[in-house]
Amino acid sequence: MKLNGAAAITYCGKPDPNAAGALIYGADAMRVALRRQELIAALIGPEGEAEMRLTRMAGADLRRDAALLVDAIKAQGFFPGPRVAFVEEATETTAPAITAALLDWRPGDAQIVVTGNLTTKSAVVKLFDAHPTARSIGVYDDPPGRDEIAAILRKSGLTEISPQAMADLTALARDLDPGDFRQTVEKVALYKWGDPGPLLPEDVAACAPATIEAGVDDLVETVVEQRVAAIGGLVRRLEGQGVLPVTICIGMLRHFRLLQALLADPRGPVQYRLKGRQKEAMPRQAQAWGPHRTEEAIALLLDTDLTLRSASRAPSMALLERALIRLAMLKR
Questions:
Q1: Were both Cys, which of 137, 202, 216, 218 would link to 8 (CB 3.0–4.6 Å)?
Q2: Are residues 94 and 20 both part of a single domain?
Q3: Is 112 in contact with 21 (CB distance < 8 Å)?
Q4: Total structural domains in the chain?
């Protein structure tokens, strides 16, 4: 049975105690691990592992000995209570052993929890999708939405959240990796301990990291896509990380020169230097900017670069930020 979105979040917090198990899969190991921790804790409780009601095994071990999982779901421990047999880093080669265990599973056996970097075409995913009681949960790289953030806050003891505080947390969720975001929420919960009032933006600001890792590429994309309001925040973060204004300016120049080359010859060798998101985004950006505005942007960046390298006493990062805002507004 496949679960998506809010249904998957709800299930991990309150799983079916009579289910055969659950598969949690995705490319982001941290997000998968957080979901898995939540699910197993909800199934066996905080003392489950200490009471030896959790059996762990690696996918590689299961490939060598397919009977490991069947033995684990049937074994009875000394302590009473629900049990979990956890298979980590499952691959296509573990599908036969997991299939045999699910077919042999009976009510009262340990639940089977499987994680792995799998795709929707995987035999393991299809197995859990088709099973009448087992659940299949895909975890993707999208940042947590409001429902998920609200669930994390409730688990931390925060139930009253002002709209602006929720907006600030949603922005933080986009910038932080999942583990850091959860730590920030836990810090906010401790900060608000004993305070009966709602969570306010100043509470979030007091607990948010002083600087959040940002890349020059993030700032380049923000400028090219005309997200003017976000430029200042990214510039501050890069400054906090020690990135020099000249480095940012060089990155911007490189991007606009690539746009210029694409406009001059869309089928030229420059195409072979595009990677990842660039392959889709840069041809669209080149078409949107056009040759004249792209030339204006390069001229503006060259002037800025010369000023940054000169003996000018103007604050370098402030000068660069002003230039980037002008640049983002060129296309309007």
A1: 137
A2: yes
A3: yes
A4: 3
The reply to whether 174 and 224 lie within a common domain is no
User: Of 186, 207, 228, which residue is a domain's last?
Assistant: 207
My answer on whether 184 and 235 are in the same domain is no
DSSP letter for 146, please: H
Rounding to the nearest 10 degrees, give the CA dihedral for residues 26, 29, 30, 36.
70
- Whether 160 and 222 map to the same domain: the answer is no
- Read off the pLDDT of residues 6-24 as tens digits, 9 standing for 90 and up: 788 889 989 999 999 999 9
Chain segment 247-261, per-residue pLDDT in tens: 889 889 988 988 888
Q: Answer yes or no: do 121 and 10 share one domain.
A: yes
Rounded CA separation 115/22 (Å): 9
The pLDDT tens digits for 228-282 are: 888 888 888 888 778 888 888 988 998 898 888 888 876 655 554 555 566 678 8
- The SS3 assignment for 275 reads coil
Name the percent of the chain in helix, strand, coil, to the closest 5: 60, 10, 30
Residue ranges making up the domain that contains 55: 2-138
29-44 and 5-13 helices, crossing angle to 10°: 40
Q: Which of 208, 207, 203, 210 is nearest to 161 (CA)?
A: 203
Same domain, 225 and 164: no
Single-letter amino acid code for the residue at 286: A
Rounded-to-integer distance, Cα 271 and Cα 261, Å? 9
Residue 205 in tokens: 């600001």
Final residue in a domain of this structure, among 138, 169, 190:
138
Joined tokens for residue 310? 């000169």
Whether residues 33 and 130 share a domain: the answer is yes
- What residue type is assigned to position 55 of the chain? T
Alpha-carbon dihedral angle through residues 215, 217, 218, 220, given to the nearest 10 degrees: 130
Q: How many whole angstroms separate alpha carbon 107 and alpha carbon 159?
A: 36
Which uninterrupted H or E stretch holds 293? helix 278-309
Give the C-alpha distances (Å, rounded to integers) separating 24 from 99, 121, 226. 16, 14, 37
